Amino acid sequence: MIDLFFATSPNVYKVSIALEEMELPHRLVPVDLSQGQHHDPAKLGGGVTGKVPVIVDHSPADGQGPYTVVESGAILQYLGEKTGRFLPSTMRQRSDVMQWLFWQVGGIGPIGGQTWHFRMFAPKIAPHFDNSYAMSRYDTMFAKLWRTMDDRLADRAYLCGDYSIADMATFPWVAYLEPQDGIDAYPNVRRWRDAIAARPAVRAAYAKGEAIDTGYERNEKGVSLFPWEGLMQHVIAT
Ligand SMILES: N[C@@H](CCC(=O)N[C@@H](CS)C(=O)NCC(=O)O)C(=O)O
């Protein structure tokens, strides 16, 4: 059994997708980020980075008792090695997957997060600041990452040929946020996104996640602050 310390966010959905795809028995343990629960390692399975996702594997391969893993990229690699699935064993193919996994965790994830922040939150949180430079910088960087991805997908179905943990890492970010010029400017990404959204394991991951209210995405009046659930549903429903 694996516990996934869970909030409805793109970084966490990467892992719930992997757990579903790899058919690993797991439980989602809600973490209410709005209450700061992620700052308490006791509420995070012993995770000390103050971030979700975190997993605790109660049956690790070494048989030496529960094992805690933090950082979404490291978790995906751990699960790929545990199961031998979605992470190739040959040198070049494996390195390809790791390159694109790192591209996600160091690129489209954090840049997507900042793009979202400056587009959606900064104007509300700090309306007295001129955020136009930051907004323009992150929009440009985000679109460049999408262009890289569209080029990469021009002659392959998935980022590294076969569907892999690199695709699982990238999908949640592409599903909830598009560049300013819209997804039609990136037809290969659209095809890739639609193919992944149709996978039963991906649908199961979102259905289970959205049945859990972690409080993260709602303000004190119960109003949704983070519309990624709705956007994901849109992607998955189409
Ligand atoms: N590099 C980390 C980033 C994880 C991350 O930023 N998680 C967010 C939710 S998507 C979080 O826990 N935010 C809470 C905070 O930073 O206070 C990973 O890939 O796992």
Could you describe the 3D structure shown?
This protein has helices spanning 10-21, 72-83, 91-125, 132-152, 165-176, 187-197, 200-210, 228-237; strands at residues 2-6, 26-30, 54-57, 67-70. By secondary structure, the chain is of the alpha+beta class. The chain has two domains: 2-85 and 201-237, Glutaredoxin; 91-197, Glutathione S-transferase Yfyf (Class Pi), Chain A, domain 2 (Up-down Bundle), CATH 1.20.1050.10. A four-stranded mixed β-sheet has the order 2-1-3-4, covered by helices on one side. Helix 1 crosses helix 5. The structure holds glutathione. Residues 9-11, 33, 38, 50-53, 71-73, 105 line the site of glutathione.
Q: What is the CATH architecture descriptor of the largest domain?
A: 3-Layer(aba) Sandwich
Strand order in space, largest sheet = 2-1-3-4
Beta strands, count: 4
Termini gap: 33 Å
Number of domains: 2
**Largest sheet composition:** 4 strands, mixed
Low-pLDDT segments: 219-225
Bound molecules: glutathione
User: How would you state the average pLDDT, rounded?
Assistant: 90
Helix percent band: 40-55%
CATH class of the largest domain: Alpha Beta
CATH superfamily of the largest domain: Glutaredoxin
Enter the CATH topology name of the largest domain: Glutaredoxin
Cα-based radius of gyration, to the nearest Å: 18 Å
Strand % is 5-15%
